[in-house]
Amino acid sequence: MSGLLIRISASVAGASIGAFCLRMVDPSLLSRIAPFLLIGVACFFLLSRNHIGVKRPPAIGNAAFAALACLPIGFYDGFFGPGTGSMYAAAFVLLLGRELRSATADTKILNCAGSVVAALIFIPSGLIVWPAALAMALGGMIGGQIGARLALRWGAPLIRRMLVLISIALAIRLLIQQYHLGWLSN
């Protein structure tokens, strides 16, 4: 099995487990942890500017990457979701030695696969708010197209800056939601 198929399989398995767990467990624990994971991802990209534009030898093989990165990040995607792409990108750079542009391309595939599987699990249970889901899907497709064009034109430095900015913005938004910091949202 090719490396991409192994990664997709692990991501889909993780997202499936995460989506099933979400139906049985209160997601508040993960929602408290997620902002700090995103801040960690932002710090990684902020501090690793010398490593993200250059391909390096992988620290682990494809099977280990699938087990150590794709499965747990896929679980996070199926269970909670926000920031999944940033986490995949960091894992590709850190563990597989990928340069950020190619890491971002594979990130999109894994994120999409996990999201589709989670959606298929949630549809029968009536847990999907369709107007919000469709708006998010449309925004994701438009953003993906714009992001891909910008990445091809401006490369890893732009992707790095955007990952840092988006990870921090999303972490702040999640912290505001989690801790009801209304005074910050005015």
What does this molecule look like?
The chain has 186 residues and is mainly alpha-helical. The protein has one domain (3-185). The chain is 79% helix and 0% strand. It contains 8 helices and no strands. It has helices spanning 3-22, 28-47, 62-79, 84-96, 100-122, 130-154, 156-179, 182-185. Helix 1 packs across helix 5, helix 3 runs antiparallel to helix 4 (84-96) and helix 3 crosses helix 5 (100-122). It is globular. It starts with a helix and ends with a helix. The model has no long low-confidence stretch (mean pLDDT 84).
List the helices and strands and how they pair.
Blueprint: H1 3-22, H2 28-47, H3 62-79, H4 84-96, H5 100-122, H6 130-154, H7 156-179, H8 182-185
| Overall SS class | mainly alpha
- The pLDDT mean sits at 84
Name the quaternary structure: single chain
Radius of gyration: 16 Å
Q: Estimate percent helicity.
A: over 70%
The largest β sheet comes out as: none
Low-confidence stretches: none
Total of domains: 1
Shape: globular
